[in-house]
Design a protein that fits this description.
The chain has a five-stranded parallel beta sheet with strand order 10-14-11-12-13, sandwiched between helices. The protein is elongated, with a radius of gyration of 26 Å. It folds into two domains: 181 residues, Domain 2, N(10)-formyltetrahydrofolate synthetase (2-Layer Sandwich), CATH 3.30.1510.10; 199 residues, 3-Layer(aba) Sandwich (Rossmann fold), CATH 3.40.50. It has 15 helices and 14 strands.
Amino acid sequence: MDEFNLHMTGDIHAITAANNLLAAAIDARNFHESTQSDKALFNRLCPADKDKNRVFAKAMEKRLKKLGIEKTNPNDLTPEEVNRFSRLDMDPAKITWKRVLDVNDRFLRKITVGQGPEEKGMTRETGFDIAVASEIMAVLALTTSLRDMRERLGNMVVATSRGGDAVTADDLCVGGALTVLMKDAINPTLMQTLEGTPVLVHAGPFANIAHGNSSIVADQIALKLVGPGGFVVTEAGFGADIGTEKFMNIKCRYSGLKPQCAVIVATVRALKMHGGGPEVVAGRPLDHAYKTENLELLRKGCVNMAKHIENTTLYGVNVVVAVNAFATDTADELAAVKEAAIASGAFDAVVCTHFAHGGAGAVSFCLLTIGIYPSVSLQVMTIGACLC
């Protein structure tokens, strides 16, 4: 478990390298455009050989098409076409791409770059995000193949030109380089639980990225591995807003996969907090309200769970509530949660004790969820850890 938390997969390092390569390319391109003539800039982009022949790199084809230039020989471009092709003319105030670092370093959230004497006064304000917030992480989670990832990386918008046009990674001709850095990160990491259940770890469901879900390619591999009689459990981030809704609206639309069952996780303690219970503060003893039975407080908080159930069932998916039991929960409290869940539209609710008893504590829950659609050959279930 320690290895799992210590950059074991290397995916975040690859994302960091690719993201910052793109950031460096943006500033380098702006620098050269500000210090070079059209001719000099074009010579750097399409250098001539000893016979004065030039060729467009394959990565340049998309930009030529974007500009409506159908010529294939660089020597045939007019001076006006050379200008349009060579200059991205990015507005420094509208460069949206930031650098990233896999450390929560608050003092790098806003910085000024270009202060060195070699940068000739080309300073601008930018900043650092945490690495998993990079759009490249979002691309990794949504991609389905190396070719698809190459296309998505190249289409990322990084800035706006002074003329109002979107500037992409492929306009900078770095989409291929980004793909090379990410070529191994596209492969999910196979691990196992303490009880030997296979697990594919890929992308950043916990991170502040576009959709907060594990990767499509990991789900596809898992479904292939389990075969017609198996089922796959995939994580859908936080709750019904950032997790389930983005799972359904983004991930399912791109992948074409449809979940047969959605699992909502709830605890008595969390529901009491939603009901108006005292704030839980790290390092302070747990308030007495969470250690003793309080059905009134609990039932008030169940409206939060009810809303999650409502939001999820709107997608036409059956919901099962997993009630994670704590040692301080009473039988009446657990029963109250189950009753509220079913009354709110859940297919069923099951008390789970896997924290204390391992897999054996969730057997009845698993049998229920698998049995909801016994005629479906491939079971895909989402877990939204929304109330714990």
